[in-house]
Amino acid sequence: MGFIEDISAAAEIIRNTHAVTLISHIDADGITSEAIAAQAVARLGIPVTPVFVRQLEPLTMRHVPDDDTLKVFTDLGAGQQNLMEEAGMKADDVLILDHHINQPAPNGTIYPQVNAQFYGPEYAKCSAAGVAYMLARKLDPDNADLAELAVVGNVGDMMARETCGLTGIARWIAEDGAQTGRVRIAKGINCYGLSTRPLHLCLANSDDPILPGLSGDPKAAADLLMRLGIYQKSSDQRVWESLEAEEAKILASVIAEQMIANGESTERLFAELYFFPHETELSPLRNASEYATMLNACGRWAKPKIGEAVCFGDRGTQYREAEHMLRHHRTIIRELCEHILSTGVADAGHLQWIHTRDTYPDTIVGIGAGMALSKLDPSKPIMVLCYVSDEPDLVKISMRTYEKVLRRGVDLQAALVAAAAEFDGAGGGHNIAAGAYIPKGCEDDFIRRVNELIAGQFATGAPHR
Ligand SMILES: [Mn+2]
């Protein structure tokens, strides 16, 4: 069926139920899709109970209550219909809102599902929060005030990353939010921290794209800003969002000139950005990517309900707790990054790697890997291996690289999916950032195999992209 039919059917299922249990994932997309669906359902006067899980697997299925509520799965479920069937759930008891690969239930139960992967390219780059939003909008056009949460979920799930902006239905949702004034769509530099970080740090921290002479060098970035009259002194703290249009334009064109002079493409210098003008200035809730980080921080440190409260509009006690989570998150990631740099990585030839064992939680090693890479050899992908807290037999693999390396043919997802399968593990992710789980003990062979696969990708070179 088409998207409209599936969304209409989902809306009917919600309207005809007396109580909902919402089962969702703990990352930014999971928390926002839950918050959208929960508010849309609650506004109909139907009681909702949230259940957040790190992953839907046999062990976490027991958190899903065995009662007569409708089980709505957001940002998960498409790939776990076998577990629903095993738990004895009937098609009438379930609604799946997802964007992950669909794996039908083995005994043929057809669970109602709206999955962004079903409807062609216009929908393909839409996260679960986008799907939940379309359902909310179908239930009541007044739910358009939830558009910002869908934008946060989409951006948090990297739907804007490859194309430097949202596309298709996800872009339509941002525009829908712009109509009510809750979302401001802007063009600007493709850096992180535009609402909260002093601009020189924002530029110095940029690693995709690499800004020649600025990335990794806060002092040079502050000097440039003083030269342009954007900073009065090197200790200024202005953020990008506070720049006048003319200042932002001059800054972008100077950086673009430097990139061109260095033979770099400026293709990734500009991005479409999503701001929320009703939020307090200088707060991480002012733009989609920083908002998403705050929710990820809550989820990764096992407090998804704090993130949910922020999505519901709490700006008091729970919000302060979320700020605390965010600070904690940043501190641990910075420590991990320093640990990687001070310990040093091993060079396998076509990738560099480090095993952090149980020193840091597996939920953040990928982020730390990405940050450390900007201070390592950027031409080789980084692999970080670590143990998984509640899975003593597994090793988690996180890999990161840069757009520039992708253009030479590298695809981390392809490499990790293929290698993990050979070792009875499982891999997934994106070409630029991917992960895998493998059995403990085969790490050395695994590194060798991934290195071989990446060597092959470099040798074959880039396909037409
Ligand atoms: Mn998602």
TrEMBL record:
Segments forming domain DHH-CID: 192-268
SUPFAM superfamilies: DHH phosphoesterases (SSF64182)
Family matches, as InterPro entries: DDH_dom (IPR001667), DHH_CID (IPR048515), DHH_sf (IPR038763), DHHA1_dom (IPR003156), SSDNA_exonuclease_RecJ (IPR051673)
Residue ranges of every copy of the DDH domain listed in the record: 20-153
Alphabetized GO MF terms: exonuclease activity; nucleic acid binding
Pfam families given in the database record: DHH, DHH_CID, DHHA1
DHHA1 domain boundaries: 365-455
Protein name: DHH family phosphoesterase
Organism for this UniProt entry: Methanorbis rubei
Taxonomic lineage: Archaea, Methanobacteriati, Methanobacteriota, Stenosarchaea group, Methanomicrobia
